[in-house]
Design brief:
- The complex is a heterotrimer of chains A (about 210), B (about 250) and C (about 650).
- Chain A has one domain.
- In chain A, about 75% of the residues lie in helices and about 0% in strands.
- Chain A is built from 9 helices and no strands.
- By secondary structure, chain B is α+β, with helices and mostly antiparallel strands.
- In chain B, the strands form 2 sheets. Chain B has a 5-stranded mixed beta sheet. In chain B, strands 6-7 form a two-stranded antiparallel ribbon.
- In chain B, helix 3 packs antiparallel against helix 5 and helix 6 crosses helix 8.
- The longest helix of chain B is centred in the first third of the chain and has 14 residues.
- Chain B is elongated and about 60 Å long.
- The mean pLDDT of chain B is about 95.
- In chain C, about 35% of the residues lie in helices and about 15% in strands.
- The model of chain C has no long low-confidence stretch (mean pLDDT about 95).
- The chains are: A mainly alpha (about 210), B alpha+beta (about 250), C alpha+beta (about 650).
- At the B-C interface, helix 1, helix 2 and helix 3 of B face helix 2, helix 4, helix 5, helix 10 and helix 11 of C.
Chain lengths: ~210, ~250, ~650
């Protein structure tokens, strides 16, 4: 086992991104499923939040996620720096033929990171939330998505996340040595987008109030 | 037909695009034959001809390589620049011609670049160690046909560098993976399979190529259509080579 | 007495053992002296060229422990023109149990060469063929395989046994990559020093021994010397003397021609091979010809319009106005007659300005389009890419093209030229193919020479090494260096009004017309008059732009074409003196009543080895008599 040697290679860095990406993806899926408790009413989702605190998973989870994000970001940064130096500067370059998702991985990642900061200040810390009461998840969410600009911000972020996942799932499996169909990544992305967006739109349209 | 060429001219550290108008071209000409015509004209006029690499002119030696209108080897799929014919362009077109551009492929002159980094990657491990005379009978080891076909498909790489030229990361991973796959799927290549992956990737990275981010630009640009699955295979070999097979 | 040359003393191969032909190679290897493994690192060898022969030789000599320097003009040793060979490689493995044997491959090769090759050499080639396949498979060459995992073979070029191993249509590429990878391994190990983009411009001969070469770094323009105990030339053939050929654009004769000028005899220069199924010329801009595998003739039918002036599209010409001339002239072999015969028939007919068509419509009717696609799909694609025509719908147009040169520097059984220490391997020598090469035998010879023959005997010479150290101050070296530099300066100084390309085109046209597929005395004499005129004009009017101190592709080309001008003259002299027809050399004065080649064994059963005496001076002919003890010369007949 030669972990340091592996990380020194470009493929090793990609593998770190693939593994941390997979962990983050699992969190995102769990988060999305948890969100759907909104549709069962205030008691359900507020109770879900209390349950998570009672079993003491919140802080270990946060530390783990932070570690994953840090590694994911570090590897991405190093690979980007190397690619910047390596790639040719053409006078005339035809638009890249690959998918939009593949091309926007780096900036998409940055957008998602900025959104996460906002999201934490909004619904975790509550500073940017119109209601902003800790533990009252349902009320905070409903207060948020009355405003079109909040819905828009969340929608843009979730779509960016969808694109990131769409290419990320395929790319991660490829990096770990398994070639899968690109459709799998698309499927995962669509389900996650639909799941996350169902909440703000349900609130905005009055389905949940 | 009539074409306007915007060709990269470089004789020192920097270069620029220079416009040339060509008339009376035949649609049956190859792209390189058009450059021949231009060069004849330039020489007769006392100017320096455009330097470009070429040799076999039948799509197999891998020596030619031009970025034509921003596309490696031009617009036709699975076609090298030497086999690209003018019938694929329209009368009056303006065509930009640039050299391959990537940090590990420095420009030598005009459209000629130095691709010796590819040789170094092969020297690092892209072989099976078998001195002449030491081989067993050719039928001593049968090779399942699907493996032989996979090896062949990867071995078709001509080392032209189009994958690097097209890659948004300046990565040479398709080239490296093609060789690792060719040798790695054959029974003869098993003893050195993991060290080969480690050594070739280490040399690839050290030569200044970028890492692969699976953007998928290389395979469409490849004149031999080397598939992306080769990269997955190399990734798997490298990961194993640094973990459970780090002793080999 | 002929006016074009003089005759000198006969020459003989001193190194081939006599006795039973089957054990000659064993006995030669045993009698050859060896170099102790510990001493090999003090013996150095220069190998010029990195194709099948040169790449394999440099790698193998490195494996043996010699200090090797390898040179190629391309940007990487992987690009040598061996890479373009399509069809396959012969080997007497008899895996098919179809009656093949070393002796049969030997017999077929001597007969195919029209009895103008050496029995000893050819027999050794047939013996070694078996080891080549083993070696290449072990290296990972992805030959075609059967479902059982064993190697597939096919019959090629009219052979009656299936002895040709292949890797789709890219056999040369795969074999070369095997040699290239072995070479790169030695480069990494520090045993081979590689000099790419470096062209050999002269041979350094010191005290009668080949001791080095003068090269020009094509990127910096620097002219410098490299020294070694022996020099190996593996620089390929000279088909580009015809301007248009299936050779790569850079293929040239400079290395062997310069060695010839330094004293190496040049054997059988007029033996050139023309391949019948190439894609025709589309205009004056044509820069090279592309070959299509002769396997196409297995199912395609060759025809011309009956009316020589028919300008209709081929599909508009009705069946009864087509002349299937190969089937008409050679009823028993039909479209499968050997290369030289098919080429000559096609050229004679298309000289009358008719198109020659290779038609698959019958095959598509008989086998279905799918079966035809499976067999020839990649060739059809290539044809369509170049011509824009779809061969499934329109008959392919074909034209013969120069493809291979059997002639080359004269070598003995050890592949040593007449200059001690100078070895010549692969297409660059003359040794194994006589007057005509069989399909799938070029790859076999290149690899046999590189992997096995040369490494097996070069020790005999290197046992006397290391020789006295020389450097640039040695008079012989200084002279050679200044000659090369002077030549570069002269080429740049002419500053005339004609491009190198225009001279090359004119020379090629002349050679194709007068010294191509058919030669006659009047035409050859005409060429011998015209070549010196054109050569003189070249040195007065050529225009080479730029300087010699950097990458200058026109300068490279100019030097090569200048040497082609000298070689062309020797080719015509050789073709003129050989008043018989044999293999690829067809003299119209020497043919049977039905128009086939008529050999003259009584007068011409020899190798013509030419000695250089000066530009435009009559060369001296040295004859090496050929003895046939194991294969009785007979007339090739295909009607």
């Amino acid at each position: 086992m030669d972990t340091i040697g592996l990380y020194r290679t470009t493929i090793g860095k990609k593998a770190v991104m693939a593994v941390t990406g997979a962990a983050l993806l699992l969190f995102v899926i769990a988060h999305m499923i948890g969100n759907l408790a909104v549709f069962s009413g205030a008691d359900a989702i507020d109770g879900y939040g209390r349950f998570l605190r009672e079993i003491n998973v919140v802080w270990p989870m946060r530390i783990g996620l932070l570690g994953c994000i840090a590694l994911h970001f570090l590897a991405a940064y190093q690979l980007t720096a190397k690619a910047r130096k390596a790639r040719g500067k053409y006078e005339h370059r035809r638009r890249v033929q690959g998918s939009y998702a593949a091309r926007t991985m780096r900036w998409g990642g940055v957008i998602i990171a900025l959104f996460v900061v906002y999201h934490l200040l909004d619904l975790t810390v509550g500073w940017l939330n119109p209601h902003g009461v800790s533990g009252e998840i349902y009320a905070n969410v409903v207060a948020d998505f009355q405003h079109w600009y909040v819905v828009l911000a969340y929608t843009l972020a979730v779509v960016a996340l969808g694109f990131h996942i769409r290419h990320g799932v395929w790319s991660a499996t490829q990096t770990l040595g398994i070639t899968t169909s690109r459709v799998i990544g698309l499927g995962v992305a669509v389900v996650i987008c639909a799941g996350f967006l169902s909440v703000p739109f349900a609130v905005f349209t009055g389905l949940v109030s | 037909m009539k074409l306007t060429l915007r060709i990269w001219r470089q004789s020192s550290a920097t270069g620029r695009l220079v416009d040339y108008e060509l008339e009376d071209l035949s649609p049956d000409m190859s792209f390189l034959e058009m450059l021949d015509v231009l060069n004849e004209r330039l020489i007769t006029a006392g100017d320096d001809p455009v330097a470009f690499d070429h040799d076999c002119r039948e799509g197999i030696c891998g020596m030619c390589g031009l970025m034509i209108n921003g596309m490696a080897h031009g617009p036709e799929k699975a076609t090298t620049a030497c086999q690209l014919h003018l019938r694929h362009f329209k009368d009056g077109d303006v065509i930009t011609v640039e050299p391959w551009r990537a940090e590990p492929f420095p420009v030598v002159r005009d459209l000629v670049v130095d691709r010796s980094a590819f040789d170094r990657i092969v020297a690092a491990g892209g072989y099976i160690s078998v001195p002449a005379g030491s081989a067993p009978d050719a039928h001593a080891t049968p090779v399942p046909k699907p493996d032989a076909d996979t090896a062949f498909e990867a071995a078709a790489c001509i080392g032209c560098g189009a994958c690097v030229a097209a890659c948004p990361n300046g990565s040479g991973m398709l080239f490296t993976a093609a060789k690792a796959t060719h040798l790695g799927v054959l029974p003869q290549g098993q003893p050195e399979r993991y060290s080969r992956a480690r050594d070739m990737v280490a040399e690839h990275d050290a030569s200044g190529f970028g890492g692969c981010t699976n953007a998928g630009e290389c395979t469409p640009a490849c004149p031999k259509g080397i598939p992306l699955t080769t990269i997955a295979r190399l990734n798997a070999d490298l990961l194993r080579g640094h973990t459970i097979r780090s002793d080999r | 007495m002929p006016d074009t040359h003089t005759e000198g003393s006969p020459i003989a191969d001193q190194r081939a053992p006599d006795g039973p032909i089957e054990s000659r190679w064993d006995r030669r290897r045993f009698s050859a002296r060896l170099v102790n493994p510990a001493n090999r690192r003090n013996r150095s060898v220069i190998v010029v060229g990195t194709g099948l022969a040169g790449g394999a030789a440099a790698a193998t000599l490195g494996e043996l422990g010699y200090q090797v320097k390898s040179f190629c003009y391309q940007d990487s040793p992987r690009r040598a023109h061996s890479i373009a060979a399509q069809g396959g490689i012969n080997a007497a493995k008899n895996y098919r149990n179809d009656g093949d044997s070393v002796h049969r491959l030997f017999y077929d090769t001597v007969k195919g060469g029209d009895f103008r090759s050496r029995e000893s050499n050819v027999h050794r080639l047939a013996q070694i063929s078996v080891e080549i396949i083993d070696q290449c498979v072990a290296q990972g060459v992805p030959f075609a395989r059967e479902y059982g995992g064993l190697l597939d073979t096919r019959s090629f070029g009219g052979a009656q046994v299936s002895r040709t191993f292949y890797a789709r249509g890219q056999t040369g590429q795969q074999l070369l990559l095997g040699a290239y990878q072995a070479l790169e391994r030695q480069i990494a190990a520090g045993r081979v020093e590689m000099h790419a983009r470096t062209e050999m411009l002269d041979l350094i001969v010191v005290d009668g021994r080949a001791r080095g070469i003068v090269v020009r770094d094509l990127v910096t323009g620097a002219v410098s010397s490299h020294f070694a105990d022996a020099v190996v030339l593996a620089t390929g053939g000279y088909g580009n003397v015809f301007h248009l050929s299936t050779n790569a654009k850079g293929c040239n004769t400079t290395a062997i021609w310069r060695a010839h000028r330094r004293g190496a005899l040049f054997a059988n220069p007029c033996f050139t091979q023309i391949h019948p199924t190439c894609i025709p010329i589309s205009g004056d801009h044509q820069s090279k010809l592309t070959l299509m595998s002769e396997s196409l003739r297995n199912d395609g039918r060759v025809w011309v319009p009956r009316d020589a002036h028919d300008t209709r599209a081929p599909n508009d010409i009705p069946e009864d106005e087509r002349d299937y001339f190969l089937e008409r002239m050679y009823p028993s072999f039909g479209n499968l007659v050997p290369r030289d015969i098919a080429s000559r028939a096609a050229k004679n007919i298309s000289d009358e300005k008719r198109g020659v068509y290779l038609d698959f419509s019958d095959a598509i009717k008989r086998l279905g389009a799918l079966a035809v696609e499976q067999r020839y799909g990649n060739l059809f694609e290539m044809y369509q890419r170049i011509t824009g025509d779809d061969p499934y719908k329109t008959p392919m147009r074909i034209y013969p093209a120069v493809h291979y040169t059997m002639g080359g520097l004269w070598v003995d059984y050890d592949l040593r030229s007449t200059i001690p220490g100078l070895y010549v391997i692969g297409e660059a020598n003359f040794s194994d193919h006589g007057a005509n090469r069989l399909g799938a035998s070029a790859l076999m010879q290149g690899l046999a020479d590189g992997y096995f023959v040369l490494p097996g005997v070069i020790g005999d010479y290197l046992a006397d090494a290391p020789f006295e150290a020389v450097d640039d101050s040695h008079p012989a070296v200084a002279d050679t260096l200044s000659e090369v530099r002077g030549r570069v300066t002269t080429l740049l100084a002419v500053n005339g009004d004609r491009t190198v390309e225009s001279f090359h085109r004119e020379l090629g046209r002349l050679m194709w017309d007068e010294c191509g597929m058919e030669r006659d005395e009047a035409g050859l004499r005409k060429a011998l008059e015209r070549i010196p005129e054109l050569r003189a004009e070249f040195w007065q009017r050529v225009k080479v732009p730029g300087t010699g101190e950097r990458l200058n592709q026109e300068l490279e080309k100019a030097g090569r074409v200048a040497d082609f001008f000298e070689l062309a003259e020797l080719m015509c002299i050789d073709a003129l003196h050989r008043a018989e027809s044999c293999g690829g050399h067809f003299r119209t004065e020497s043919q049977t009543p039905d128009g086939e080649a008529l050999r003259d064994d009584a007068n011409y059963a020899y190798v013509a080895a030419w000695e250089y005496t000066g530009v435009g001076q009559p060369p001296v002919l040295h004859k090496e008599e050929l003895a046939f003890e194991h294969v009785t010369p007979s007339t090739r007949s295909y009607s």
